[in-house]
């Protein structure tokens, strides 16, 4: 597995061709995913190791990607410790009783993987064997403290993060205690996945782009750094990703990741400059390009490759997740194009 082009690219080592995987690749656009998922809760599918393993494998078979990402969700550990979380179709994570005060800290505790998420551990173990035969590494993941906090405080997805920012500014002591508890939770979740066999990890700080650099530096970065540096001894590549984070790339790079994920708003050449030569970059095709027909997707894929350059340390991905309306055939052709055009 050490010869995996994905793992080599994450470590900025030479590869025979640029590796590809897609965020939210485990489903959404695939008809076989919709058949197996049915109408039930996504959390129920995640709690079934056979189902979760099969969904994880589907895009590997369909697209020929160079890495698989575990079928799970960033709120799984929150649900597992009993905070009261569900994932509503068409909306996303919804919190039964949002975080409001010091008393709510008692509802957060460290993760006991064996007792709380045995199904995740079993899924990873199942996948490691099957993926190992293909030479494809498995990526484990967790939510970053800020993004998890935003769901807990807002009660669900939001566009403006008003309640989240209000707490951050009005009660920094409580804010830090909340993010510290969430960092412990995320670190435990990542550690459990790696112990079960995951070969890399990604920390999703999906909504960090809502923050000004000074606020990110002072109130968020220390907690993300604790998670990423806490995984340093695991000897697996660590990826750090957020959306709309052009103003934060330098700071995110300093949190301790080996790879910085870049959305479509920043050219990869500029992103490389900002994160520095000691880190790889991941991205960054606009997911909407895959809805515009193959000629557009082809042209924009080539542009990403051109901007990435030929220096080691590029993992091709979308700038965010696969959109549900995406034609899987377009993604198949994107993978083929990247592999063909970058063959060395």
Describe the structure.
α14 links the parallel β8 (280-285) and β9 (314-318). The protein is globular, with a radius of gyration of 19 Å. The protein has one domain (31-287): TIM Barrel, CATH 3.20.20.210. Helix content is 47%, strand content 11%. The strands form 2 sheets. The protein has a 7-stranded parallel beta sheet. Strands 2-3 form a two-stranded antiparallel sheet. The protein has 15 helices and 9 strands. α4 packs parallel to α7, α7 packs across α10 and α9 (162-170) crosses α10 (172-196). The chain is an alpha/beta fold and 344 residues long.
Q: Helix- and strand-based class?
A: alpha/beta
> What is the strand arrangement across the widest sheet?
1-4-5-6-7-8-9
What does the radius of gyration come to?
19 Å
* Total helical segments: 15
| Proportion in helices | 40-55%
Mean pLDDT score: 96
Tell me the CATH architecture.
Alpha-Beta Barrel
> Unreliable runs, pLDDT <50, ≥5 residues?
none
Please write the CATH class name.
Alpha Beta
Strand content: 5-15%
What is the end-to-end distance?
Answer: 20 Å
Largest sheet: 7 strands, parallel
How would you describe the shape? globular
Total domain count: 1
Question: How many strands?
Answer: 9
Topology-level CATH name: TIM Barrel
Helix-strand pattern, N to C?
A: HHHHEHEEHHEHHHEHEHEHEHEH
């Amino acid at each position: 597995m050490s010869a995996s082009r994905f793992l080599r690219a994450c470590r900025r080592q030479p590869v025979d061709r640029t590796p590809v995987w897609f965020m939210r690749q485990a489903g959404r656009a695939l008809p076989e995913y919709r058949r197996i998922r049915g109408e039930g809760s996504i959390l129920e599918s995640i709690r079934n190791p056979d189902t979760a393993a099969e969904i994880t494998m589907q895009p590997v078979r369909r697209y020929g990607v160079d890495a698989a990402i575990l079928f799970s969700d960033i709120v799984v550990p929150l649900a597992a410790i009993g905070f009261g979380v569900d994932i509503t179709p068409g909306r996303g994570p919804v919190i039964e009783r949002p975080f409001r005060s010091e008393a709510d800290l008692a509802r957060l505790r460290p993760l006991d993987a064996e007792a709380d998420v045995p199904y995740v551990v079993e899924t990873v173990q199942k996948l490691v064997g099957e993926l190992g035969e293909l030479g494809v590494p498995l990526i484990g993941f967790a939510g970053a403290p800020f993004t998890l906090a935003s769901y807990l405080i807002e009660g669900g997805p939001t566009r403006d993060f008003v309640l989240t920012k209000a707490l951050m500014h009005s009660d920094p002591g409580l804010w830090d205690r909340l993010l510290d508890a969430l960092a412990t939770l995320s670190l435990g979740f990542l550690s459990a996945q790696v112990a079960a066999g995951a070969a890399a990890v990604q920390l999703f700080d999906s909504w960090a782009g809502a923050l000004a650099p000074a606020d990110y530096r002072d109130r968020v970065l220390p907690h993300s750094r604790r998670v990423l540096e806490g995984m340093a001894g695991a000897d697996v590549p660590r990826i750090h990703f957020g959306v709309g984070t052009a103003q934060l790339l330098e700071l995110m790079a300093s949190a301790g990741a080996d790879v910085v994920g870049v959305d479509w708003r920043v050219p990869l050449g500029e992103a490389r400059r900002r994160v520095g030569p000691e880190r790889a970059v991941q991205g960054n095709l606009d997911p909407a390009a895959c809805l515009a027909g193959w000629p557009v997707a082809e042209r924009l894929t080539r542009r990403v490759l051109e901007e990435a350059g030929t220096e080691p340390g590029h993992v091709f991905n979308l700038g965010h997740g696969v959109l549900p309306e995406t034609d899987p055939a377009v993604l198949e052709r994107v993978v083929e194009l990247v592999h063909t055009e970058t063959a060395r």
